[in-house]
Each structure stands twice: as C-alpha cells, then as structure tokens.
Amino acid sequence: MNENISSESCDPLPMQSTVTLNVTDKDVYGEDTYNPFEHRNVLHPTSTLGSFFHLLKSSLGSGLLAMPAAFKHTGLIPGCIGTALVGVIATHCVHILVTTSREICSHCRVSSLSYTDTCEKVFKHGPHNLRKYSQIVRHFADYAMAGVCLGGTSVYVIFIASSLKDICDHFNPNYTFTVKEYCGFLLIPLIVLTQIRHLKFLVPFSLLANICLLLTFVITCIYTFSDLKDISTVKLASSPTQWPLFLSTAIFAMEGINVVMPVENEMKKPQHFLGCPGVLNVTMVLVAVLYAVVGMFGYLKYGDDVKGSITINLPQDEILALTAKVMVATAVYFTYCLQMYAPMDIIWSRIKDSMKQKFHNIGQIILRTISVALTVILAVAVPDLELLIGLVGAIFFSTLGLFIPIVVETVHKWDRDLGKFKYILWKNTLLLLFYLLVLVSGCYSAIKEIIIKFS
C-alpha cells in the first residue's frame, strides 16, 4: 500500500537522495526536488509489462464494439483521421494530468496522489484567489468520476438488453419483448450482483468477464474480416453535421483516464509510464490502431446497417455468432458490477457519516438499489445503444478525460511557468474549445436524434 497522504497539508519530510525524474534538480517552486518515486512503499508493485496490460484493458472494452457505428457517422476517411485525433488528444490529457500530479507530489512532498487528490492540491497550492475552491473542485472531480461510471453502466444495461433480445428473438420469434422490457427484467439481477461490496470478491467475475470479452472479440473479427463489401458500397465521408456523434462515441470508447493514476501509482518503475516509448504512448498507439481497424472494417462489412454494438449484426442462426452474443452479455453483466464499485465507494464515503453505524448496512443496500435503478431508468429512457453512448460520451467522459486535466494543468502552471509566449495557455484554450465542441454538439446531436427516433 502507498504511504498515507494527508489531504489537508503538505508538511515537508526529511530530505532524501534523489534520482532522475521528469522534474529537474530544482523543481518549479525553486526548492530542492523531493522525488516521490523514492518514497512509494507499494506492497505488490506492478511491472512495466503488467501496467501496460492494465492500461490496455481499461481502454479496450465494450466501446470497441461500438466503433463501426461511430464510423457510420463520418465515413471511412474522416473516421480514421478522427480516431487518430481523439487518440492524440486523449493521450495528451493523460500526460498532462500525470505530469501535474508528479509535480504537485514533489511540491507537497508526498509519494503519490489519486485523480481527485491531484485536482484538490493543485487548487489548494495554486493562485491565491482559487485556493478556497479546492474542496469544491475535489467534489466536482469525485462526482464527475461517479458520473462516468454511472453513465457507463447505463450503456452496459442497453448492451445486455440488446444482446438478450437478439438471442431470445431467435429462439422464440413468436413472442418477443422490447429492449425497454429487457432492461426492466435486468433490474433485480443487477441489484443482487451490485450488493457485493468488497473488491476481492469481484476478482472471479473480472476474470470471467475478461475471458468472455476476449473470445467475443475473436469471434467478431472472424465474421467482420470475411466477405467484406466493396469500398464503393460505403461512404468515404459523411455530412459534417453527423460528426459530433462520432467524436462523443470515440471519446466514450477510448477514454480510460479514471484508472490512469492507480496504474501509475502502483508501478514498480513509474519512470517508464511517460516518455517515449513509455507505457502510455505504446498503449494509446495500439488502442488507436485497433479502434480504427475495427471501426473501418466493421463499417465496410455492414455499411449503414451497422448497429450500436457490432455483435448485434452477427448472424442469428449460427452457433458461433450466438455464442459471441451470449458471452458479450455475460461479460458486460459482470463488468457492470465492477464499474459500479467506484461510484458506490465515492458516494458512500460522502453520506455514511450522516447516519448512525447501526444503519450503515441498510444504508448501503438502499444506496446500491437506488443507483442501479437510476442506471436502468436512464437505459429505459434512451433505449438506443448508439445514441446513449453518444450522450454519455459527450457529457461525462469528455468532462473527466478532457475538461478536468486541461483546467488542472492551467491552474497549476498559472503562477509558475506557462512556457514561452505562454504556449501552455494557448494550447489549453484550443483543447478547451475542442471539449466545448464535443460537449455542445455531441449533446445536441444525440438529443436531437433521440427526439426524432422516440417522439
């Protein structure tokens, strides 16, 4: 475990010998550098290769199956360029978050900081007129992370419901239910599964989900890369008015920033996380290539008929395809519980002190039940996988992955070093405009399509 970190102070520790870091011998504050790497006491540190796989797993999830639908909104050429653009921006935002966290660790003389700790301390030790907002910023980051998890799990409900409908319609075509009804059927099983409160009991479910998801990808690729249509049957470029849904879907699919700090903090050699090649850069290049390939060839295979998850396009009358649909439903079902762990922990830590100890158990049950019900209600309200992914990506994933890192770096550098000609300020202004473009246009496009489809 990492050494305890106070969120209220940055008391200096005795000076230790230092090694080379991404900060110089004299840090940006004019003090002798405190090397946080030397003071990390991790009980079971992760190797560089292990960290690579952890980061890869966090970025390669069910969102990969949605990329062909994203390409439908742009066409092949803008889709490939857009995937590369989102990959570069997402990688840069992770880079500035980790770099800022390391610098504030050095200044505060602590070994490591979480995502929310970093946000809080940057404001607490930033410009004087912003320091009073440090707790507000921490709460905002906490709830943004909870929003990502809750919004993502709503997408998972649609994933499972759509897959179950596809499977059951094949075996019982004379008596079918809607996706909304399948969402309702899932309420009780999801409530029961989410009552598991300790991470160690979720490990077997995580292993099963990973195996099912991997096999689903393999089977999907077998179908996708066989009997491809001619390139003339699909659009090389769609109308720019449809591009916002691509951006929000790509951000939903590729963003894994909520696990970045835990992975970096647990590394045996955290120096290998950034830099070139570095764990981050290698992972994100591979992720961007995989997403572009799956998106491009999935769109080539099914054209404008591609669904929100490409597994729904697989044949209904073949055992191998049905197996993939069963496995993806199983994988996402167990992943739902894993994704709910973080927001439940965040919300419970905020409210548990307001009730007596003897009511904690019933309080946990009620909290988890209400949270699951909210995700199901959102899924029922927007029972279209493609549109819900676009909406959740535009609001929650862009805020956590783009907006917060941009603001945190700007505040951190404001009184210190904004670079030559204040290039950091200009660069972050452009990134902020990109975030606003994704947020506004993504929400507008998704809500517009939702109204058209369900009115």
From TrEMBL:
Name any one GO molecular function. L-amino acid transmembrane transporter activity
Instruction: Output the Pfam families linked to this UniProt entry.
Output: Aa_trans
InterPro entries per the record?
Answer: AA_transpt_TM (IPR013057)
List where the protein spans the membrane: 140-163, 175-194, 201-225, 245-261, 273-299, 319-338, 359-381, 387-408, 429-447
Which compartment or compartments is the protein found in?
A: Membrane
Entry keyword Transcription: no
Q: Which PANTHER family match?
A: AMINO ACID TRANSPORTER (PTHR22950), GH04538P (PTHR22950:SF494)
Protein name, per record = Proton-coupled amino acid transporter 4
Q: Which organism is it from?
A: Papilio xuthus (Asian swallowtail butterfly)
